[in-house]
Design a protein that fits this description.
The complex is a heterodimer.
Chain A lengths: L8 E7 L2 E3 L1 H12 L3 E5 L5 E2 L16 E4 L2 E10 L12 E8 L6 E6 L11 E6 L12 E6 L5
Parallel strand pairs in A: 8-10
Antiparallel strand pairs in A: 3-4, 3-5, 6-7, 6-9, 7-8, 9-10
Chain B lengths: L12 E3 L2 E7 L2 H12 L4 E4 L6 E2 L15 E4 L3 E10 L12 E8 L6 E5 L12 E6 L12 E6 L7 H4 L4
Antiparallel strand pairs in B: 3-4, 3-5, 6-7, 6-9, 7-8, 9-10
Classes of the chains: A mainly beta, B mainly beta.
Chain lengths: 152, 168
């Protein structure tokens, strides 16, 4: 058999998992669908975003959910020059840890910016949500963060 | 809270599909088998040392460790060596339950493979039943087992147990 007669095919193996969110993550995702953020109040009054069901220090149930953001500060970031197919943005962007206003922890998401020179640790960003009709209650409802002042 | 979103209720479930995209190169022996399916025939390979016929062939004999080079066109009929009636629904199920998965030993082969059995009530399936492959229309034949729609009883008397007892 000639080499050219050997077959070749593209395959996709996929598992359609679904997860139950529980009351806390569910509330966070519900808020994202509504275009806002909530965090959980943990020990010493610290606000955890995204919220966990249990305080990471004491293991106690977290307290009230409180609204945070939509602005925040970049705690740290990494520039992605060549986005992959499953990345949230298909143009070069930054992965960043963003500490939302009112939160004591940072959450990971994409920051849209014209280039790495536009970004800095400590820079102010704000949330850019998908259009309301497209939001489904998922982390992807938050399209990205953008630099405050609209550089992106 | 934005207007018009409150009637959806709180989020309680999250779809988290995971997928793996990959490229598959079946190699020389399996390519031959798959191209045989494209012609509407089952193509196996015989080991030159022990004489066993494998379908689909991996290109080597697992017993003797030698390359299998002789191609063998197998019959369109075979014998059910064993089977399973599927009654349990699962995500992504493509066939209406209950249905039968059968191990089928094609005539001329020394290796059975799994096939879907149709056109028979699930309580009438039995070991030794003689079955035949039902292929898709000629224009729809492709180098894939999807070219075989299913197997069905071919009307012959059941095979004698001794003819397939080595293949259970």
């Amino acid at each position: 058999m000639a080499e050219s007669e050997v077959l070749h095919a593209e395959h996709r193996l996929e598992y359609p998992y679904a997860r139950s969110t529980g009351p806390i993550i569910g509330a966070f995702l519900t808020a994202l669908r509504e275009g806002r953020f909530v965090g959980a109040t943990g020990s010493e009054g610290k606000v955890i975003v995204p919220p966990t069901e249990y305080d990471p220090l004491t293991g106690d149930d977290v307290g009230e959910l409180v609204e945070v953001g939509p602005g925040g500060v970049i705690d740290s970031w990494a520039w992605v020059s060549h986005p992959l197919r499953k990345h949230p943005l298909q143009v070069p962007f930054a992965w960043a840890l963003v500490r939302l206003d009112g939160a004591d922890t940072a959450m990971l998401h994409a920051v849209a910016a014209p280039g790495p020179e536009a970004l800095a640790t400590g820079a102010r960003v704000t949330a850019k949500f998908c259009p309301e009709a497209e939001r489904v209650g998922s982390m992807a409802d938050l399209e990205s963060f953008v630099l405050e002042g609209g550089a992106a | 809270m934005a207007d018009g979103t409150t009637d959806q209720g709180p989020v309680t479930m999250l779809a988290t599909p995971i997928s793996l995209d990959f490229e598959f190169t079946p190699g020389v022996a399996q390519s031959k088998f798959l191209r045989g399916l494209e012609r509407g025939e089952f193509l196996g390979q015989r080991c030159g040392t022990c004489g066993q016929v494998y379908v689909p062939s991996r290109g080597t004999c697992p017993t003797d460790g030698v390359a299998t080079t002789e191609d063998v066109v197998l019959g369109n009929s075979g014998t059910v060596t064993t089977y399973c009636v599927v009654n349990v629904p699962f995500a992504g199920q493509a066939i209406e339950i209950p249905y039968i998965c059968a191990q089928i030993l094609l005539d001329g082969a020394n290796l059975s493979f799994m096939g879907l059995l149709q056109e028979i009530p699930t309580d009438q399936i039995r070991m030794g039943m003689r079955v035949e492959a039902v292929w898709v229309d000629e224009a729809e034949l492709i180098p894939s087992l999807a070219s075989v729609k299913y197997f069905r009883p071919n009307g012959e008397p059941d095979a004698d147990y001794d003819t397939y007892k080595e293949y259970l």
